Amino acid sequence: MRAVVAREVGEPGDVLTVRRVPVPEPGPGQVLVRVDAAPVHAGDLHVIRGRYGYAPPFPAVPGLECAGTVAAFGPGAGDGEDGEDGEDGLRLGQRVTTVGVTGTWQEFVVADAAQVLPVPDSLSVSTAAQLIVSPLTAWLLVTGLGLGPGDWLVQTAAGSTVGQLVLDLSRRLGFRTVNVVRRRAAVDRIRALGGTEVVCTEDEDLPERLAQLTAAHPMSKAIDCVAGRVGADVLRALAPGGELVVYGALSTHRQTDPAMLGIPVPADAIIFGGRSMRGFFLSRWFATTPPQVARRELGEVIALVEKSAMTVPEGQAIPVERVLKAVRLAEAPGHGGKPLLVF
Ligand SMILES: NC(=O)c1ccc[n+]([C@@H]2O[C@H](COP(=O)([O-])OP(=O)(O)OC[C@H]3O[C@@H](n4cnc5c(N)ncnc54)[C@H](OP(=O)(O)O)[C@@H]3O)[C@@H](O)[C@H]2O)c1
User: Which InterPro entries does the record associate with it (predicted)?
Assistant: First the structure.
């Protein structure tokens, strides 16, 4: 089978190769999933560059999620004898996605049965391949801040997949949004998705415009995945006591120096204004959340996607052999839909 392998930590263009490797065997309680599509997330590129929240042993197969079908059961994962249909509605040929399984950029991946979730029939391969990471992150960011009718949320990189899903939730839950984007061309899309205010850093001074907006409507909640100066400007604009949740560091994307991953936090905003900043990391959320709670939240998110209350932007299918093209696209400004490696 084909697998994308990162030889070692480094720039993706230098260290990624597509190799032929044996199909893995599912062990006891495990499921073999034939992967149809796997997204290229910003987090994957952080892993390859060696500055993510976990580091796999290298050589490593990147990939945080996928859409596929059940290809085989390991001993004990099926109802009866090996290879038979399994528990939790899993059957051979069932469309599934994986949760918390790393190494999805390969034709077959092995997962514990508990990490394999059925995918509703109505969902496209593109949506199924992106069903967990972005929608669940958007959901947990919004619910974690307790956003409801009348609230304001400031968000950066509003045109990202997560940002667009947050906008879906804003329409559903009735909160208003200030959306920071870096390109003029992204503004109309954000408005079409129901963004209340859009700040375009290509045309506007961010601190100045945020100061105007927050003078009119004091805002105390923000989410940021850009970090650096942008994250600091957003924190400073919040009302006293306000809270910024940092969940990404896109402005430092190509840096491999951990020292560059900082946010120049204004001490006066924290000391005198009582503003605070905390992080969010989905893997940590899974590691610290009781499994039944995680299942419930996942169920809510999948139901919202199934009834189109959250719409995952359509990805762009790219054959796995062209993984370097997919990586370049993932980092290109205005790349649109997320690159999906297809097998
Ligand atoms: N903490 C977690 O557990 C977690 C989970 C999921 C995602 N994330 C993070 O969420 C962020 C968004 O991910 P995604 O998959 O939704 O993104 P995506 O769909 O790939 O889109 C990336 C977006 O970020 C914008 N962007 C890229 N570099 C930027 C920069 N230097 N300054 C300002 N904007 C920039 C792009 O703007 P253009 O349209 O102008 O190119 C685009 O709108 C990433 O940082 C990712 O790591 C974190």
Answer: ADH-like_C, ADH-like_N, ER, GroES-like_sf, NAD(P)-bd_dom_sf
The answer to whether 157 and 187 are in contact (CB under 8 A) is: no
Break the chain down into helix, strand, coil percent, rounded to 5: 35, 20, 40
Q: pTM for this structure? A: 0.96
Q: What DSSP line would sit under 102-139, residue for residue?
A: ---SBSEEEEEGGGEEE--TTS-HHHHHTSSHHHHHHH
User: Residues 191, 120: one domain?
Assistant: no
Q: Determine the residue of 160, 188, 251 to mutate for testing ligand 1's pocket, defined as the one with the most ligand atoms within 8 A of the Cβ atom.
A: 160
Q: What are the tens digits of pLDDT across the range 117-141?
A: 999 999 999 999 999 999 999 999 9
**Ligand 1 centroid to residue 70 C-alpha, Å:** 31
The answer on pLDDT for 92 being more than 80 is yes
CATH label of the domain that carries residue 75: 3.90.180.10
Q: Which domain holds residue 84?
A: 2-131+312-342
- Is 232:263 a contact under the CB 8 Å cutoff? yes
DSSP H/E element including 277: strand 276-279
Length of the chain: 343
Q: Show the 3-state SS of 12-73.
A: HHHHEEEEECCCCCCCCCEEEEEEEEEECCHHHHHHHCCCCCCCCCCCECCCCCCEEEEEEE
End-to-end CA distance of the chain: 10
Q: How many helices (H) and strands (E) does the chain have?
A: 12, 15
Cα gap 221→176, rounded to integer Å: 11
Largest CA distance in the chain: 67
Number of domains in the chain: 2
Average pLDDT for 38-42? 97
Instruction: Please report the pLDDT score of residue 82 as a whole number.
Output: 47
